[in-house]
Design brief:
Blueprint (H helix, E strand, L loop, with lengths): L2 H15 L3 E2 L4 H8 L12 E3 L4 H12 L6 E4 L17 E4 L6 E4 L4 E4 L5 H9 L3 E2 L10 H6 L7 H4 L6 E7 L5 E5 L4 H7 L8 E8 L1 E2 L3 E9 L3 H17 L3 E9 L7 E8 L10 H4 L5 E7 L1 H7 L7 E10 L2 H21 L6 E9 L4 H6 L14 E10 L2 H25 L3 E2 L19 H14 L4 H5 L11
Parallel strand pairs: 2-4, 3-4
Antiparallel strand pairs: 1-2, 5-6, 6-10, 7-11, 8-9, 8-10, 12-14, 12-15, 13-14, 13-17, 16-18, 16-19, 17-18
Helix pairs in contact: 1-3, 4-10, 8-11, 11-13
Length: 480
């Protein structure tokens, strides 16, 4: 083990953290490495430290910062899947917040307090018992911290804005180990940049979130063959127009290729937020011939616990945003099929997953952020209703990922981007939680927000710990 690694581990133990420091070969260390959703970020750090509370996070930060040459990473759920995402590190120490996974609810203030290591499925299960709900993640294994620091698209974005817009207060450990609150009146500049500013300013140890009444949803899947693509796209465009005036539903349109399949399918995930069966919003989707519907009333906790993306493989994701447009969506559909065929030629047993998802991002939704003091993503710049496109790809080996899958994925996105640009439909916004390391989402937040983030970084982290010593993720210091 390198001398700096030995020094870092020794300093963590001197700080009184011996019983929560794990090194390679120990059962707890190996279990935490294996618990990452994807194989890609399992980087085997020098050690893992698992704080149980905010005070121990502070002690860990102080111990690592005072160790010259020691870099570190910060993990909540560990769902982001590219090397260098910031949730793990090869040459350094990982601060793993997985033991900080409690949720509490204050009946008087109607605030739910979430620790960063919680999974959304557990959060929903807890708050539903109190008759309330929060706007959070849509997949069972996604962690609280990563989703909210990246902005947070949710089931309820159409009604309440992004997940980060529901945060009323943050508890944060800064680079010097101090523990501060950030809200609209205390450290308001920090409060704003934490809403979408990623891991640039500190370690958030508690999210105090506004709640609203919990309702069962009418939800499920409608599965189509790929032949229905054009009809699905037309219905999706119509739904986006409807949603701007009627924020009562949520739709994910997913093109999906399963391992060893002959062809891909299209899976519509339809959710009415008020539990209305067969609502008007779904009519055009349900009228498409050949659909196989399976919808019923259920709780959000039940829905999310059953919605799990394929895991345990090498993964790559890419995203882009464009104005709602059927022609661009048809180009994406065609390029998805082209990429699938290319991968089938290079992976003869077709042992891979691809999912391409269309979801709305409407211009009017920024008003929810503005009403709550604003976030840092710059969505108020949007003048048109948009589509966020994300494609995730999973293969068996790192060689297939680097030599076959990732190049094919980038080629696909280059074609879609060129199409959108030629039609004046490309939008300069990247949703951080869907990006990979080749993309630069902070750059798309707008000049004024970039300035805000740089000023907050200089004020709250004057020595640049979260820019230099936490090298993973998207660094505001690197945005020109």
């Amino acid at each position: 083990m390198a001398p700096v690694a030995q020094s870092a581990i020794a300093n963590l133990k001197k700080a009184g953290l011996s019983d929560i420091v794990y090194v390679p070969g120990e059962q707890a260390y190996e279990a935490r490495e294996e618990s990452y959703w994807s194989l890609t970020p399992r980087l085997h750090p020098w050690a893992i430290v698992q704080p149980r509370n905010t005070d121990e996070v502070s002690k860990a930060v102080k111990a690592l910062v005072k160790t010259p040459g020691c870099n570190f990473a910060i993990r909540s759920g560990g769902h982001m899947s590219w090397v260098g995402a910031g949730n793990n590190i090869e040459d350094g120490i990982t601060i793993d917040l997985g033991l900080m996974n409690k949720t509490t609810y204050n009946l008087e203030t109607k605030i739910a307090s979430l620790q960063p290591g919680s999974r959304w499925t557990n959060v929903y299960d807890y708050v539903e018992k109190h008759g309330v709900m929060v706007a959070g993640g849509r997949e069972g294994l996604v962690g609280v911290g990563g989703l909210l620091t990246g902005g947070g698209l949710t089931f309820y974005t159409c009604r309440y804005g992004l997940g980060c817009d529901q945060v009323a207060n943050y508890e944060v450990v800064l680079a010097d180990g101090s523990i501060v609150e950030a809200n609209s009146t205390t450290n308001p500049d920090l409060f704003r940049v934490l809403k979408g500013g990623h891991n640039n300013f500190g370690i958030i140890t508690r999210f105090d979130m506004r709640t609203f009444e919990a309702k069962d949803v009418f939800d499920g899947d409608v599965v189509f063959s790929k032949a229905a693509a054009n009809d699905v796209i037309d219905a999706y465009v119509d739904f986006s127009t409807y949603l701007a005036k009627n924020p009562d539903s949520h739709v994910l349109a997913i093109w999906f290729f399963m391992p060893k399949s002959e062809q891909h399918i299209i899976n519509l995930v339809l959710t009415n937020l008020d539990g209305v069966e067969n609502p008007k919003a779904f009519e055009k989707f349900m009228a498409i011939p050949g659909g196989q519907p399976n919808l019923k009333k259920k709780s959000i906790a039940r829905k999310v616990s059953a919605f799990l993306l394929p895991s345990g493989r090498q993964s790559a994701w890419l995203t882009l945003t464009f104005k709602v447009d059927a022609q661009v969506m048809r180009k994406a559909s065609a390029e998805f099929e082209n990429m699938t065929e290319k991968l089938r030629k290079h992976i003869p047993d077709s042992n891979f997953n691809i999912s391409m998802v269309f979801q709305p991002l409407l211009a009017s939704w920024s008003q929810h952020s503005v009403a709550r003091g604003g976030n840092i993503l710059g969505l108020e710049q949007l003048s048109d209703d948009c589509v966020v496109l994300v494609t995730g790809l999973e293969v068996e080996t790192v060689e297939l990922l680097n030599e076959v899958a990732t190049p094919a994925l980038k080629e696909m996105f280059a074609e879609i981007e060129a199409c959108a640009k030629s039609l004046d439909k490309l939008v300069d916004f990247l949703y951080l939680n869907y990006c990979d390391g080749s993309q630069n989402p902070l750059r798309t937040y707008g000049e004024e927000n970039i300035k805000r983030m740089k000023e907050a970084s200089a004020k709250y982290d004057p020595t640049g710990v979260f820019q230099e010593r936490v090298p993973g993720g998207y660094k505001i210091s690197k945005v020109k």
